[in-house]
C-alpha cells in the first residue's frame, strides 16, 4: 500500500518532537510546514493525503476549496476547539476530526496559576526582587478562602477548575447552558443564573466554547453587573470577551485584574516572536500596559502530558480515517 503523506501546518519545534515520536508507531510521511494554513498557503498541501492543523489556522471556504483541489481527504485538528473552521464549507467535502480532550488538568491548572499570580502579584514581585527592591507596597492580595468563584461552563475543564478552586476553600457558583446536575448534587458547584454569578463572584473564570451566543458575553453590560474589583480569567477563547469593554473596566478599576491566555485577535501574534517588530494592535498593546493584566499566549494546554495525548489521539484519528473506520472524533456539521 502507498505510504500516506501528511502535511503538518504551523509546526513548532515541540510539535515536531511530539509528533515524530508518536509517528514511530504509524510510519506516515509527515512534512512539517512552518506556515499557518490559510487560503494563501493551502496549495502547499498538494500531493498530501491528509493535513494536520491547529487553533489559528484559517479553514474557511476559500481554503477548503484549495484543499479539495489539492487532494486532501482528511483534516486532523490537533486541538479541541474548532471555531476556526467553516464547518458548512468542509461538510461533505473533507472529513475532519479533532482531539476533544487531552488534559483538562493542564488548562485548569494554568487558569489557577493566573489567579494566584494576579492575586498575590508574584509577577511584579519577581521583577522587584531581581532589581534588589524588597518592598512589598502595592503587592497586597486577598485570601481566596471563603470568596466566591464563578465558573462559566462546567464541561471537562470547568469541572476540574471548580475542584481546584474548592481546594482553596472557595464557594463555587456555576453557570452552564446545560447544567450537570450530578456534578451539583455531589457538591461540585452550585448552579446560578448568570446575573447572580456576575453579582456575587470575586473571581470569574470562563470555560465555555465560543459560539454565536457566547461571543462577547463579557461586555459592557455584563461587566456593569459584576462586583467592583472582580478578577476575570479567560483560558477559553478570546472572543468570549469584548476587549474594548474589558479595557474600559480595567481603566475604571471596576475590573480589578484579568488573566488572559487567549485574545480576540491573537492569531496575528500568539505563538510568534514579535520582540523586534513590536505590536501594532492597539488593544493588545494597551492590555499589556496594565500591571493588573497577565497575558499568556495560548499556553494553557502546554504540558508534556497534554502534548503526548494530542499527538497520540491525532495519529489515531488519521489512522481511523485511512483504515476506513468510523472516526471516533469526527466533527459533524449540524
Ligand atoms: P467541554 O465541551 O467539555 O465543556 C464546555 C461546556 O460549556 C459544556 O458543559 C457546555 O454545556 C458549556 N456551554 C455550552 N454553551 C454554553 C453557553 N452558552 N454558556 C455557558 N456554557 C455553555 O469543553 P472543555 O474541554 O471543558 O473546553 C472548554 C473550552 O476551553 C473549549 O471550548 C476551548 O475553547 C477552551 N480550551 C482552551 C485551551 C487553551 O490552551 N487555552 C485548551 C483546550 C480548550
Strand order of the largest sheet: 8-7-6-9-10-11-12
Molecules bound to protein:
nicotinamide-adenine-dinucleotide
What portion of residues is helical? 25-40%
| Residue fraction in strands | 5-15%
Q: Tell me the CATH topology of the largest domain.
A: Rossmann fold
Overall SS class: alpha/beta
What is the average per-residue confidence, as pLDDT, rounded to a whole number?
A: 96
What is the quaternary state of this protein? single chain
- In the predicted model, the low-confidence regions spanning at least 5 consecutive residues are none
Q: How many individual helices?
A: 12
Please give the structural blueprint.
Layout: E1 5-8, H1 13-23, E2 29-32, E3 50-53, H2 61-70, E4 74-77, H3 87-90, E5 95-97, H4 104-120, H5 122-130, E6 148-152, H6 156-167, E7 171-175, H7 181-185, E8 190-191, H8 194-200, E9 203-206, H9 220-224, E10 230-234, H10 243-251, E11 255-260, H11 282-287, E12 293-295, H12 304-322
Parallel strand pairs: 1-2, 1-3, 3-4, 4-5, 6-7, 6-9, 7-8, 9-10, 10-11, 11-12
Helix pairs in contact: 1-12, 4-6
